[in-house]
Amino acid sequence: CRGCQFAPFLYNMMEVIFFLKLYTLYTRTRLGYMYYKRQMRKAREHYPAGHSTSFPMDLNGIRIIPISVLSDNYSYLIIDTASSLAVVVDPADPQSVQAVILEEGVMLEAILCTHKHWDHSGGNKGLKRLHSSCRVYGNAADNIPGLTHPLSHKESVTVGRMHFKALFTPGHTVGHMIYLLDGQAFGAPSSLFSGDLVFLSGCGRMFEGSATTMLSSLDIVGSLSDDTLLWPGHEYAEDNLLFAAEVEPRNATRESKYQWVLQQRGQKMCTSPSTIGEEKQYNPFLRSHSAELHLALRVQQLPDEDWTQFRARVLEELRKHKDLFNRR
Questions:
Q1: Quick one: CATH architecture of 57-326?
Q2: HAMAP family annotated for this entry (predicted)?
Q3: Residue 176 is among the residues annotated as catalytic for this protein
Q4: Which residue, 117, 284, 307, 133, is CA-closest to 207?
Q5: Would residue 321 show up in a list of annotated catalytic residues for this protein?
Q6: Which residue, among 151, 169, 235, 166, has the nearest Cα to 206 in the 3D structure?
Q7: Catalytic residue chosen out of the listed positions 90, 115, 142, 294
Q8: Which pLDDT tens digit goes with each residue over 233-266?
Q9: 96-99 long-range CB contacts below 8 Å, 24 or more apart?
Q10: What is the DSSP letter of 186?
Q11: In the chain, where the domains are located
Q12: Model confidence over 71-106: pLDDT tens digits?
């Protein structure tokens, strides 16, 4: 019947509306905060030692410590060992982060918050209470808890020998930022703390931005040096690489990385960091130019469509496929 033709469309629209209502509840109401607190308590019960085992990485006197929090998030403590000054990125569980701060015997100078979602910003105020002189950085467009120092695109944050550049990357949220630690100051590769913009072989959902906006943000990541270390906000590697196999099945680099990730996750080991160079080889969300990807998604560039418009359309289609893949 004629009405049946519209049934899938109406079902999808209802699903989208329901999802948006849930998202609004999570980000803009007290209920969202209470849900985050409940998730934190459950994670502490189920993963008393954290969801993944990780080890510090020492880069010529700069120490980066991934801290597994909640069920699949990562916070990062970055320490200038010469001065014992530290910065933390996205301290979702202040108790877990504080334990590492005490273990390392460092002074927390700054919190770098990528975006407003509770699983990244929920510990800001708790840590601020414990470290009164600590500064909380982020973008003013996001309603970041405890924000003291709003940042704009390409502004810098300096703590000891550590120089971070804030990069405005909207799409996941309207005020999402990523933080690039300059490695030249200590003779090492730079490090990118990417929040929910880019994961190992994945990217965040486009909650508050268009595909064009997200593509522009992803292109910022793609323009970075290949040896830049990537420290994402979640442990999604295994699922992301499985999806990547569906859209680029002949990608040998992806298959090699997947086998490594299986070994790591089989032992509940952290898969961070990756590198930007690696990601450009197998992360489909950084490969909107790939002909194999276009074929898998069944999209073609239109005669009057410029390359950027086409790549944005590829990204939008890719994100839809990933969302469906996650619901299987």
A1: 4-Layer Sandwich (3.60)
A2: Glyoxalase_2
A3: no
A4: 117
A5: no
A6: 169
A7: 115
A8: 999 999 999 999 999 999 999 999 999 999 999 9
A9: 96/50, 96/67, 96/68, 96/69, 97/67, 97/69, 97/123, 97/127, 98/127, 98/130
A10: G
A11: 2-46, 57-326
A12: 999 999 999 999 999 999 999 999 999 999 999 999
